[in-house]
Amino acid sequence: MSIRTDLALERLEINGEITPAGVTKQEDNKDGMLIVKVNIETDEASKLLNKPKGTYVTFNVSDFKVPSDSFEKEVEIVAKELSSMFPENKNGALIVGLGNSDITPDALGPKAISYTFATRHIDDDLKKAIGLEGICAVSAIAPGVLGQTGIETAEVVASLVKELNPSFVVVIDALAAKSIDRLGTTVQVSNTGISPGSGVQNRRKELSETTLGIPVISVGVPMVVDMTTIAYDLLGEGNQSCKVSDNGRTMMVTPREIDVVVEHAAKLVAFSINKALQPSLALEDLVALVG
Length: 291
Hints:
The protein has helices spanning 8-15, 43-49, 71-85, 108-113, 124-129, 146-149, 153-164, 209-212, 227-235, 246-249, 258-277, 283-290, and strands at 23-30, 33-40, 54-60, 92-97, 137-141, 168-176, 186-190, 216-226, 252-253. It is of the alpha/beta class. A hairpin with a 2-residue loop joins strand 1 and strand 2. The radius of gyration is 19 Å and the shape is globular.
């Protein structure tokens, strides 16, 4: 049975209790948040886990179904990890919110863009007048999906990279998970880029340093689990009763409160990125600036 997940940590769990050669796993706990860092270091390990080589950091955050009392702490922790993945040269960043804003479980990227602090249009004189000298130049876009625009997301992003010449790209996308318990409670940050739509069997051209020529950092939150994976997770591999009809295999399950989950997740992701890009600004100032 094929198990679908975009989380490197779950890929590692599927492989078994022993961490395979070419992979390192580190766990940490900061202010009550469990953080797991998985490094895939070899081609063999990449093939085994079906994930590109690189670093994947998973944060177990507060349930996005309700507002978090630890929002500021969570933003600081995620922002710090993001900052470590940014190149030293931060002359400019392009933030890309992937997904379809008309389909709620897929709307994380576009929603997060609405909370992103875009600064590229602010000239030096205005920066000086409002006390924002030295801030990173940030561009942000939600390019939609192929079915809406007739344009591949990778084509849009590649054109923008060529025109804007940013130092790096940050992509935001909804993910698929193996475990229902990780829906709306997990954030994954990676320096390997992303293949839009891969979690829902609609893989498009990847966005990565290989395809764009600059570093690509991805930020995602699991929003769906497919029906076959749920059957596996509940009943176990090899169980003869673990059968899903042909119609069921195409179904994706999402939380009942998905609209609230997406809203809260988008805020955490966006403000973590904002804080990582503009470390000199307090979170309350970023909230006021974004509105």
